[in-house]
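Researcher: Please predict.
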Amino acid sequence: MNVERLLGDEIQYELRIRNLPVYRTVAENRATLRSALRCERQGLIGLTPSASGLSAQEEYAICANKLGDLRVDITRFDISNKVNEYKRIST
């Protein structure tokens, strides 16, 4: 997982499911997640899905909200990128 590509809420989610602290800044959270992933790769710690402490309904709500955000982002991208795509296709 490339931590640099994750949005703030995605980083917070990854920290929560690992039962790690969530800090005030994205930079702090990125560093914490990066360190946790390194430890997981080295086999020093394991990820247990039950560690999240979230119910199935809470997980569903988080995923549904994220899907809604992605739909909006994709629509905006399609609209704002239409001119560039037209130029690319027609040349």
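Model: The helical segments are 8-17, 26-41, 56-80, 82-90.
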